């Protein structure tokens, strides 16, 4: 979470924080850390525990140094320690509130909320968005109402989301806000209201591609006898006849576009499922989605037979060893937690698709059995390669020989 240095200083005593020895020492140490990470020539980047210790030393020198406080908040939240992260955020905001301009404070609020939404901390984002409403100018509040609506929708409180989306529209009736209202109405299955909002959105801005796409989706739902809301659309059946037709006509750009749309729909549906599932913490939800994005991106880029459709579970089952070989080789040092996270993410995702009858029960069973069969072997390879990867006692030629033995040549071959 990067919050830029303030552009303006308040007049009088409050501006002098930057002139204190403590602030200047903290700033030099922070710049040193940033510069080292940008150009780690003689040493590796400052990260992990070392980065946290570095930041803590900076804050110890100058408790008001908000860039380090926000970085500590970021590290804490990424590690799942949201309470500590919130504490650092509050301290950083207090420093800005006391020593810098209101515009600097408001800019920080926007960046903090954006970061929290990215990491699926929607409850925490709502807390800071509501604080932002107190200090933001009236004419700039509509986008805040819009983001609050999105947070509530992500938390499955659609009624509250619609309440704030109405506030956004009442304050500034633009295409984006009407489009988002149409999306919310599709979520709750009120398709006639969704259509009205989306017609209005397209009329207001015919160049708004998101509004136009939402409008087309809404019309598809209205015509369908099987689909009645947004979740139904995300989990719609794949039109394999359409894909076959595009393949026969060598329309590969359109083919890719259709496949990517299905894939994005599945990921969005799975994300909505995770957000409703109380067994997952916010950190676990994000880590699960990130593991999926990472693995599926690897497979998509290595797939050599058209474009990888996530519903095609057979691609994962048939190539699982090769996929994991590439994952272990390409990824920085991974541990048992990351390894198990990949396993959990894949199995949870395909169990979700099985539940919604997008894959067969037997297909899921085959994948699970193959993954479990290979798990001890792959875990051992992961630990072995971690030992070799940064060991300077081995020459590069010796390392490559070990890679060939561990990964059976999969690390050299760019495709599955």
Write a short abstract of this structure:
The chain is built from 20 helices and no strands. It is an all-alpha fold and 416 residues long. Mean pLDDT is 94; it is low at 8-14.
Entry keywords:
416 residues; mainly alpha; 20 helices
Structural class: mainly alpha
Largest sheet: none
- What share of the residues does DSSP label as strand, in percent? under 5%
The overall strand count is 0
Radius of gyration based on Cα positions:
25 Å
Tally of contiguous helical segments? 20
How far apart are the first and last residues' alpha carbons, in Å? 36 Å
Molecular shape: flat
Helicity level, as a percent range? over 70%
H/E element string? HHHHHHHHHHHHHHHHHHHH
Overall pLDDT confidence: 94
Which regions contain 5 or more consecutive residues with pLDDT less than 50? 8-14
Question: Could you please describe the fold and organization of this structure?
Answer:
Helices cover 72% and strands 0% of the residues. The chain is mainly alpha-helical. α4 packs antiparallel against α5 (102-118), α7 (142-154) runs antiparallel to α8 and α10 (191-204) packs antiparallel against α11. The radius of gyration is 25 Å and the shape is flat.
Secondary structure elements and their pairing?
Elements: H1 21-38, H2 48-61, H3 66-78, H4 82-99, H5 102-118, H6 122-135, H7 142-154, H8 158-171, H9 175-187, H10 191-204, H11 209-223, H12 230-234, H13 240-248, H14 252-276, H15 282-302, H16 313-318, H17 320-330, H18 336-355, H19 361-389, H20 396-407
Helix pairs in contact: 1-2, 2-3, 3-4, 4-5, 5-6, 6-7, 7-8, 8-9, 9-10, 9-11, 10-11, 15-18, 17-19, 18-19, 19-20
